[in-house]
Amino acid sequence: MSALIYCPFPNREAARAIASQLLDEEWIACANVLGEVESLYQWEGERGQASEVAVLLKTNASLLDRAVARLSDLHPYDVPAVLGWKCDAVGGEAAAWLSKLSPGSN
């Protein structure tokens, strides 16, 4: 089974650097840096607004919890919004590709 992780970053450089590290460590097989998003939020009793860069990361469902934890550890925000979910359907070739992930093997 496959999984996706969504996470906003403060800028493209941080998004690319952390995605590259997760690729190197084999927690993910792919990161789609989607581009700038406008974030409106409520934080510590204050309303805020920011420009962020959204990223969608692809992984194996068996790695999801640990990949989310690793991304949270690497993220520059004190409290990053790292959201992961298992996919109900995935094409056969993509499923085979994602199943080959093996963190710690390099």
Automatic annotation (TrEMBL):
InterPro entries reported for this sequence: Ion_tolerance_CutA, N-reg_PII-like_a/b, N-reg_PII/ATP_PRibTrfase_C
Name this polypeptide is given: Divalent-cation tolerance protein CutA
Native source organism of the sequence: Altererythrobacter lutimaris
GO biological process entries: response to metal ion
Record-stated family: Belongs to the CutA family.
Signal peptide: none
MF terms (GO), sorted A to Z: copper ion binding
Superkingdom in the source lineage: Bacteria
